[in-house]
């Protein structure tokens, strides 16, 4: 079996940071929440999506990227949103907030509906350039994450792991979780070999992520 090496995404240069900043300084708006494929907006621009278990910090990350405090609603009540939420970024991008998973109390029917919609979205969206899979840096890759990782791997969408809430960790702990994530990603060849470390609270890694999104074509 081929072995992949995962590294931490490099700090962008000041020029690259500026480009990312300019992109994300563009107007951002909530476009629509989608519950079925026929509700998707036209695939007429570059698209990235964000996936992660409930409470991982997905809404906070989208808010931090766009500099909008309440664009994607953040809340302490996990598992509420079962819609795929589309946000416009400038005239050129869609940012897509996928429904959170791993909410133990969700009824089976809801989970199945989520899986069907997600599968259809991930395999059928021509303009989807990258999926960011958010992993809580305190927990690493858990069994609940494996399903989305496998789904992404099968759908041939390049995905990149973003560690969230790194402000909650000490340096030694961060290195351990990076190693754990790298090991867990070995069996998923569609994984992009760079991990992004972020803290929405402290703004860490936000310019890096903006830069990464800005370089996708
Ligand atoms: N310390 C810290 N807390 C965070 C960070 N990002 C999110 N949170 C908290 O984690 C909880 C869940 O965040 P939210 O963005 O709603 O998660 P979502 O369910 O994945 O959309 C909230 O209480 C946030 O304030 C972060 O970078 N650092
Ligand atoms: Mg959310």
Q: TL;DR of this structure?
A:
GO terms for molecular function: GTP binding; metal ion binding. This is Probable GTP-binding protein EngB. By secondary structure, this protein is of the alpha/beta class.
Show the helix and strand layout.
Layout: E1 7-8, H1 14-25, E2 28-34, E3 46-52, H2 58-66, E4 84-89, E5 93-97, H3 108-124, E6 128-136, H4 143-155, E7 159-164, H5 171-185, E8 194-197, H6 206-215
Parallel strand pairs: 1-8, 3-5, 3-6, 6-7, 7-8
Antiparallel strand pairs: 2-4, 4-5
Helix pairs in contact: 1-6
The chain binds guanosine-5'-diphosphate (GDP) and magnesium ion.
Describe the fold and architecture.
With 217 residues, the chain is α/β, with parallel strands linked by helices. The chain has six helices and eight strands, in the order βαββαββαβαβαβα. Strands 1-8-7-6-3-5-4-2 form an eight-stranded mixed sheet, with helices on both faces. α4 links the parallel β6 (128-136) and β7. Guanosine-5'-diphosphate (GDP) binds next to α2. Magnesium ion is lined by residues 58-59, 81, 100.
């Amino acid at each position: 079996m081929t072995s992949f090496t995962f590294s931490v995404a490099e700090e962008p240069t000041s020029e690259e940071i500026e480009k990312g900043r300019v992109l994300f300084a563009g107007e951002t708006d909530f476009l629509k929440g989608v519950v079925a494929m026929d509700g998707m907006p036209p695939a007429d621009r570059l698209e990235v999506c964000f996936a992660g278990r409930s409470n991982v910090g997905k809404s906070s990350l989208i808010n931090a990227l766009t500099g909008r405090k309440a664009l994607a609603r953040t809340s302490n009540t996990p598992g509420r949103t079962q819609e795929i939420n589309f946000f416009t970024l400038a005239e050129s991008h869609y940012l897509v907030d996928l429904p959170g998973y791993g909410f133990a109390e969700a009824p089976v029917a809801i989970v199945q509906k989520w899986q069907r919609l997600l599968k259809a979205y991930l395999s059928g969206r021509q303009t989807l350039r990258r999926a960011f899979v958010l992993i809580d840096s305190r927990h690493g890759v858990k069994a609940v994450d494996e399903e989305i990782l496998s789904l992404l791997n099968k759908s041939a969408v390049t995905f990149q792991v973003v560690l969230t809430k790194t402000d909650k960790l000490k340096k030694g702990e961060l290195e351990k979780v990076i190693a754990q994530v790298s090991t867990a990603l070995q069996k998923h060849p569609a994984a992009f070999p760079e991990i992004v470390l972020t803290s929405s609270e402290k703004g860490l890694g936000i310019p890096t992520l903006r830069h990464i999104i800005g370089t996708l074509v």
